[in-house]
UniProtKB/TrEMBL annotation:
Residues of the signal peptide: none
Keyword Signal on entry: no
Name of protein: Transmembrane protein 19
UniProt keyword terms in alphabetical order: Membrane, Transmembrane, Transmembrane helix
Pfam families given in the database record: DUF92
Lineage, top ranks: Eukaryota, Metazoa, Echinodermata, Eleutherozoa, Echinozoa
Species: Stichopus japonicus
UniProt main location, coarse: membrane
Protein location: Membrane
Family affiliation: Belongs to the TMEM19 family.
Membrane spanning stretches: 24-50, 62-86, 119-140
Membrane topology recorded in Swiss-Prot or TrEMBL: Multi-pass membrane protein
Amino acid sequence: MDELYTCYMDPLQEVKELKGTNGAISMVGTLSSIAGGAVVGLGYYVGILLSFSYNHRPPCQWFVIVAGAIAGLVGSFVDSLLGATFQYSGYCRKRKCVVSVPGADVDHISGSAILSNEAVNLVASFITAITVPPILALVWPS
C-alpha cells in the first residue's frame, strides 16, 4: 500500500490517509496555500508600487499581502471540503495507488463521483472569490 501521512479531514482529529486522497488536508499543504496566497498578494503590492511615479506615493496597500494569504487558506479549505465530498477517491489494489474513478479493483476511500478535479477547482475558486472579498472588506484597514 502507498505511504500514509498525517492529514486532518476532521479538523478535531488527526488521522492517517493515503497520499493523493481527495479532501485530505496536510500541514505542509495548508502552509503552502497560505504562502502561495501571500506571494500573489505580494505580487499585487509590488505592481502597485511600480505603477506609481517616484514623485507620487501610492495608497497604503500592504494588507493585500495578508488578504492573499487569507484567500489562499480559505480557498484551500473550500477545495478540500468539496474534494472530500463530491470527488471520488478510491484505492486501486491492482495499481497500488489512489484513483479518482470507481472500478472493480478499487476500494472506496471518500467522496462521491459527482465532480471532476477540474470542476472542484472551478467551484472552489468561485466560492472563494465571492466570499473572501466581502469578509475582508469588514476588516480592511482604513
